[in-house]
C-alpha cells in the first residue's frame, strides 16, 4: 500500500495587487510553482492549482484537491498574500497541510530591484498565513529550505509520506474477528473518542462469516495460493495437503471479508477462533502474508495496534507486528517476536522464509502452518499507540538496530533482537513511563522523524525514548 508515491496538491498563493506594477507576474509565479512540482517528482505526485489570488480561488483549489482524494496540500507563497483570504479554507481543509517557506531565488544579489523583491517576498506571506493557522488551532508542518535542494526534497518527502499515512488513517476501518482478549487493558479504547479524534473505526466481523466464506471458496483460488507459497517459501515437507489447504482457505476468506467490509487492517484473537468450535487451526501464516500485502494486523483483538501497523505501512513501508518478549542485558537488546504472526517482507535476505509445521497449544486447536524467519539486521524503529483516555493519544517511539544475533533453533516464530539506540535500560524506563503498550509496529530504518511529522499532523502526542 505504500508503494505508490504520495499525491499532494500545490496551493500557490499571491494577490492581484502587483499585476499593474509587474505585468505577467501571475504567469511567471505559476511557472515557479510548476518547477517546484517538477523538483519533487521523486518523492510525490504533485497536482498544481492555478495561482490563488483570492478567497474564491483558494476554496475552488482546495475542494478540487479533496474531491480528487489527494493525500495533502503543500502551501507555497508565490508572493505575499493576505492570510484572511485563505484562513477559512485552510482551517476547514480535510487534508494535512504543510507550509513551504521558500522563495524562487535563494540568494539576494546586488542586482536585485523592486521586481526581484516582489517575486521573492513570500516569507512575510508565510508568517501571516502561519499566524492565522496557529490562531485557528490548525495542525500543519513547516519546511524552510532552498527549494531546489536535496534537503527540501527530503523534508517534503517526509511530510508527504506522513500526510499519506494520516489521510489513510482517517478513513481506516479495522476488522476485529470475534472479540478482544479478556483482561488485556493496554488495547482498550473508547471507540467513539478514537474515531472522533483520529478517524479509525472498528468493524466487528463474526467468526461465522469467516467459516462460511472459507467453505464457499473455489478450489482454483486455493490452488493458486498454494502454488505461490511453493514458489516463495521453503515449505516443510511434514505439512499435509489438508493442513495447507485449510490454512489457505483461512487466508483467502479473511482477505475477502476485509475487502467486503472495507477494512485496511484487522485483528484475530486465538480464543475467539478456538472457542467457536468450527475451526481446525489458528490463521498464523495468513496474518504474515496479509501484512506482507499491506494490511495492518495485530493479535488478540488489538485494534489500536492493528491501526498503527497499517500506519507503518503507509508511512515507511512494510509494517511488522511484534512485541517485546525478553531483555538480553549482555547484548543490550530485546528479543522481539509474537505467537507466529510477522510480516515476512522484513525477513533477512540471506535466509529463506520457511513455512513450517509447528505445534501450538494456544487456542486448543491443531498445528497452525507458520511462517518462520529472522528479521533483517540493521536500523529499525518501534512505535506503539497509547490511548490516554478521552480523545488523547500518544505514540511512543524507539529507534535502534536489529542485531545479527545467533539463531535460536527452538523458537518457531518470527524473531530478532532489537538494540535500542538509547540502551535497554533507558529505553525501557522511558517506554514504561510513557505507557507504551506491549503490541507495536516495527519498521526497518530510522523513522522517528517520520513518525514525529505523522503525530504533528494527526494530533497525537509524540514521545521518543
Structural notes for this entry:
The chain is 38% helix and 22% strand. The chain has helices at 25-39, 55-67, 87-92, 114-119, 122-135, 150-170, 191-197, 207-216, 219-232, 241-261, 270-274, 284-292, 303-316, 424-433, 448-458; strands at residues 7-13, 45-48, 72-77, 97-101, 141-144, 173-177, 201-205, 234-235, 265-268, 296-299, 320-328, 333-337, 354-356, 370-372, 378-389, 392-402, 415-420, 440-444, 461-464. The chain is α/β, with parallel strands linked by helices. It has 15 helices and 19 strands. The protein has 2 domains: 7-170, Rossmann fold (3-Layer(aba) Sandwich), CATH 3.40.50; 173-464, L-fucose Isomerase, Chain A, domain 3. Strand 3 (72-77), helix 3 (87-92) and strand 4 form a beta-alpha-beta unit. The chain is elongated, with a radius of gyration of 25 Å.
Amino acid at each position: 500500500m505504500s508503494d505508490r508515491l504520495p499525491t499532494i496538491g500545490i496551493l500557490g498563493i499571491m494577490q492581484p495587487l502587483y499585476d499593474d506594477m509587474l505585468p505577467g507576474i501571475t504567469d511567471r509565479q505559476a511557472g515557479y510553482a510548476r518547477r517546484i512540482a517538477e523538483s519533487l517528482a521523486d518523492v510525490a505526485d504533485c497536482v498544481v492549482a492555478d495561482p490563488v489570488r483570492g478567497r474564491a480561488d483558494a476554496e475552488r483549489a482546495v475542494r478540487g484537491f479533496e474531491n480528487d482524494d489527494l493525500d495533502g496540500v503543500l502551501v507555497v507563497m508565490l508572493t505575499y498574500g493576505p492570510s484572511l483570504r485563505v484562513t477559512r479554507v485552510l482551517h476547514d481543509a480535510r487534508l494535512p497541510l504543510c507550509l513551504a517557506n521558500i522563495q524562487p531565488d535563494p540568494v539576494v544579489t546586488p542586482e536585485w530591484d523592486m521586481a526581484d523583491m516582489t517575486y521573492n517576498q513570500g516569507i512575510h506571506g508565510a508568517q501571516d498565513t502561519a499566524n492565522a493557522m496557529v490562531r485557528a488551532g490548525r495542525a500543519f508542518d513547516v519546511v524552510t529550505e532552498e527549494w531546489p535542494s536535496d534537503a527540501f526534497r527530503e523534508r517534503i518527502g517526509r511530510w508527504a509520506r506522513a500526510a499519506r499515512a494520516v489521510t489513510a488513517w482517517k478513513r481506516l476501518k479495522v476488522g476485529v474477528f470475534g472479540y478482544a482478549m479478556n483482561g488485556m487493558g493496554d488495547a482498550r479504547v473508547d471507540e467513539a473518542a478514537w474515531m472522533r479524534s483520529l478517524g479509525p473505526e472498528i468493524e466487528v466481523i463474526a467468526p461465522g462469516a469467516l467459516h462460511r466464506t472459507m467453505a464457499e471458496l473455489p478450489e482454483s483460488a486455493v490452488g493458486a495460493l498454494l502454488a505461490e507459497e511453493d514458489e516463495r517459501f521453503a515449505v516443510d515437507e511434514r505439512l499435509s495437503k489438508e493442513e495447507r489447504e485449510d490454512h489457505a482457505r483461512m487466508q483467502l476468506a479473511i482477505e475477502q471479508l476485509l475487502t467486503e467490509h472495507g477494512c485496511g487492517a484487522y485483528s484475530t484473537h486465538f480464543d475467539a477462533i478456538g472457542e467457536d468450535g468450527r475451526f481446525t487451526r489458528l490463521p498464523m501464516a495468513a496474518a504474515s502474508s496479509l501484512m506482507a500485502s499491506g494490511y495492518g494486523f495485530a493479535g488478540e483483538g488489538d485494534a489500536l495496534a492493528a491501526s498503527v501497523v497499517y500506519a507503518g505501512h503507509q508511512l515507511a513501508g512494510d509494517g511488522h507486528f511484534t512485541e517485546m518478549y525478553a531483555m538480553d542485558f549482555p547484548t543490550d537488546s530485546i528479543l522481539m517476536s509474537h505467537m507466529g504472526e510477522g510480516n515476512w517482507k522484513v525477513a533477512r535476505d540471506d535466509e529463506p522464509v520457511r513455512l513450517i509445521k509447528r505445534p501450538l497449544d494456544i487456542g486448543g486447536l491443531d498445528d497452525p502452518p507458520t511462517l518462520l524467519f529472522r528479521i533483517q539486521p540493521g536500523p529499525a524503529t518501534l512505535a506503539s499507540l497509547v490511548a490516554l483516555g478521552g480523545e488523547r493519544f500518544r505514540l511512543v517511539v524507539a529507534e535502534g538496530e536489529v542485531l545479527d544475533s545467533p539463531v535460536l533453533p527452538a523458537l518457531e516464530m518470527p524473531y530478532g533482537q532489537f538494540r535500542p539506540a538509547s540502551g535497554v535500560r533507558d529505553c525501557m524506563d522511558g517506554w514504561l513511563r510513557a505507557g507504551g503498550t506491549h503490541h507495536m509496529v516495527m519498521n526497518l530504518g530510522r523513522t522517528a522523524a517520520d513518525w514525529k511529522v505523522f503525530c504533528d499532523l494527526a494530533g497525537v502526542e509524540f514521545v521518543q525514548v
